[in-house]
Amino acid sequence: MKNKSLISIIAVVFIAVIAYFGYQTLTNSSNKQSASSDKKVIKVATTGVSFPGSYKDNSGELTGFDVAVIKAAADKIGYKTEFTTTSFDGLFGLLTSHKVDVVASAIAITDDRKQTYDFSTPYATFQYGVVTKKDSDLQSVDDLNDASIAATVGSNQIKVLQNFNDSINIKTYDDREAALSAVSNGQVDGYSNAKTILSAIIKQKHLDLKILDGDIEEENIAITYNKGENKELRKKINKALAELEKDGTIAKLSKKFFSGIDASYKE
To answer: Which residues cross the membrane (predicted)?
Structure first.
């Protein structure tokens, strides 16, 4: 009888211990899920096809300079990021329709855009240039009279080219891939974009292209918001960007994605 009583007591204790640790596990799991679900989210629009700023790597993961910068800034202020990808000319539509909170996709700050949108402090500075076939007679951006130059639909390169030389024949394409193919196939004389981007693409794809001497224009790149909205978020992001600039994170990311070039913004 004593043995049976002892076995009963041990069984009760064992069950109690299992129940306790089971409860703790469930509680900890619940707390983790709650903490995760309580984390605020920044909804971000980006292209996802614009190497090296916003693209998918070999495993299908969204990455790139602009993607990494907004992720790092969000992490600084305790936010998660949720990305929506679309063509470049569709980015601002997602923003104005409030389907996303911000756009992070190599957006240049321009006077025209300032009429409709607000911007973070800049996180990069791009010098715009033109890429052509290596055997092209064009050597410098000063040689572009009457040349046919490709630009992406909705991009600021269209206006940059017009302002630089109004004799340039601008042909628009849906994305960079199509524009670069047009150059390689001889459909246009060249393609305009930031020289840091062009350099990285040529290296990554081993393209038989060259960047012409000289710059067309220089512009600052920033995260974009609907005008007059998300003021508190903008303030937090600006603080985070300042810290990321100061500790060298943005410069490091720039060198990683732009073939060793530091395009981080410097006042």
So the answer is: 6-23
Closest CA to 71 of 106, 239, 126, 63: 63
3-class DSSP string for 101-121: CEECCCCECCHHHHCCEEECC
3-state secondary structure of 154: coil
pLDDT digits (tens, 9 = 90+) for 150-160: 999 988 899 99
* pLDDT for residue 26 is more than 50: no
Q: Reply yes or no on whether the pLDDT at 28 is more than 70.
A: no
State the architecture of 126-219 in CATH terms: 3-Layer(aba) Sandwich (3.40)
Mean pLDDT of all residues in 10-20: 45
Q: Is domain 39-123+222-257 classified as CATH 3.40.190.10?
A: yes
Listed in sequence order, the residues at least 6 apart from 202 whose beta carbon sits closer than 8 Å to its beta carbon are 131, 209, 211
DSSP annotation string for 13-47:
HHHHHHHHHHHHHHHHHHHHHHHHHHSEEEEEEE-
